[in-house]
Design goal:
Growth Hormone, Chain: A; globular; membrane; MFS; mainly alpha; transmembrane helix
Length: 436
């Protein structure tokens, strides 16, 4: 049977037929080695979420001991985001040129050093240095790790194993919040313990990743790059000129806009959710925390469901449902006003919808739409755009809230409607690149 397109939501190599219906392989049939690669490479997502939340919590606990001003806390938060973006750009390119394994080994070693600097920092200068190192190394690790998962996954399992990294991302949020709750009243020692959690996980991942071989798909593509065809050109190109050429510039821009614009909604909930609850809904921080916990549990369940459906022929139907749900979630505060119930509905609907039509889909599309030796370059560049856009938008969001919450939520509604339409009308129609 001809396979029309890999990961398209249609048939995949490795799918089976029963009574004329395409059936994807079951997760219990997945080899243990594939789970191992997915777990160790996917820990990039765990450390990404863990470091961001740890930074926010630890800075508050460090505030009095180090004499941090609100301005300095803002500078450190912006530094983490900016260096993440730069790291993704650099690490993505290096991953295509020198291999996945080399880059994610170096980045884990760097992340361990940065986490140690923040856990044992004696002064403010070390806080700035450690934050810069952590941000850069996590950003550099993410695109090569996602590519490693996709390239080593057996046929029929690629989407699900990439989606597994999003499950790890959600797990990190829960784990880090638990650590923060335990040490939240311990002052500077609590902040050091939070960063020690990241340090210990990083060291464990570094040791275990050292046992992984290089991506076989990248190795084959690299070998083809060393060979030349009859026209004297490499059989496999890794030139940036090709990425910005007619074949790939469309999906490259499309994915950058999809991830960047959708992330505006997700970032608003993450950075300003508590502010909206306390300042506009006039409720307590503890109430906001309860809603955030409920939203996390529901989003985690949605991520597991996405993992089970992403390789099915119905994948894009789930995407459309998720997109519509996320759009509706942004509109709830506009229609019903800003209150505890409307904000809770906003966060929960966005969490569920985003599991099917947000960052997790960007991760899958980023692997399927670019050739092997341009894959992490493209993903790193779209990550750079997204994080920089998030940093800039964070500067303006408080003013949107101040001018009236309706302005903010109308903007977010239009943003998510745009990304849903972009994914449904354009990105899903782009032909996937076959692996060599």
């Amino acid at each position: 049977m001809a396979v029309p397109r890999t990961w398209s939501g249609r048939a995949q190599s490795g799918d089976s037929m029963k009574d004329g219906i395409i059936e994807s392989p079951r997760l219990r049939d997945l080899p243990r080695t594939a789970w191992r690669v997915a777990l160790l490479a996917g820990m990039a997502s765990y450390l990404d979420a863990g470091a961001i939340i740890t930074s926010g919590g630890a800075l508050v606990l460090y505030k009095d001991t180090f004499g941090l001003t609100l301005g300095q806390i803002g500078q450190l938060s912006a530094l983490l985001t900016a260096l993440f973006a730069i790291g993704a750009l650099v690490g993505g390119r290096l991953g295509d040129r020198y291999g996945r394994r080399k880059v994610f080994t170096v980045t884990m070693a760097g992340l361990a050093a940065g986490a140690a600097m923040l856990a044992f920092a004696p002064d403010i200068i070390m806080l700035y240095a450690g934050t810069a190192v952590v941000g850069f190394c996590i950003g550099a690790d993410l695109p090569v790790s996602m590519a490693m998962i996709a390239e080593e996954a057996p046929p029929g399992f690629k989407g699900r194993l990439i989606a597994f990294s999003h499950v790890l991302w959600m797990a990190a949020i829960g784990t880090t919040f638990i650590v923060q709750m335990i040490v939240g009243d311990m002052g500077v020692m609590g902040g050091r313990i939070m960063w020690t959690h990241i340090l210990l996980v990083t060291l464990l991942v570094l040791v275990l990743r050292s046992t992984l071989p290089e991506s076989q798909e990248w190795t084959r593509a690299y070998a083809r790059r060393q060979q030349t065809g009859a026209d004297g050109r490499a059989l496999e190109s890794s030139s940036l000129r090709e990425l910005f050429g007619r074949r790939y510039i469309g999906p490259f821009i499309g994915l950058a806009l999809f991830y960047g614009v959708f992330n505006l909604a997700a970032n608003t909930g993450g950075q300003f959710g508590t502010l909206l609850y306390t300042e506009l809904a006039h409720t307590s921080v503890s109430t906001a925390a309860m809603v955030n916990t409920a939203q996390l549990v529901i989003s985690f369940a949605s991520a597991l469901l996405f993992m089970r459906t992403v390789d099915l022929p119905s994948r894009m139907n789930w995407f459309l449902i998720g997109g519509v749900l996320a759009v509706a979630g942004q509109a709830v505060p506009v229609v019903f006003g800003v209150n505890v119930i409307s904000l809770a509905a906003w966060q929960i609907m966005q969490g569920v919808g985003g599991a099917f039509a947000g960052e997790s889909m960007w991760k899958v599309w980023s692997q399927e739409l670019f050739p092997t030796l341009l894959r992490t370059t493209a993903q790193g560049a779209t990550t750079f755009f997204t994080r920089m856009l998030a940093a800039v938008s964070a500067l303006g969001t408080p003013y949107l809230i101040q001018s009236g919450p309706e302005t903010l939520f109308v903007t977010l509604t239009l943003a998510v409607a745009f990304t849903t339409a972009l994914g449904w009308l354009y990105i899903r129609r782009v032909p996937a690149v076959a692996a060599h």
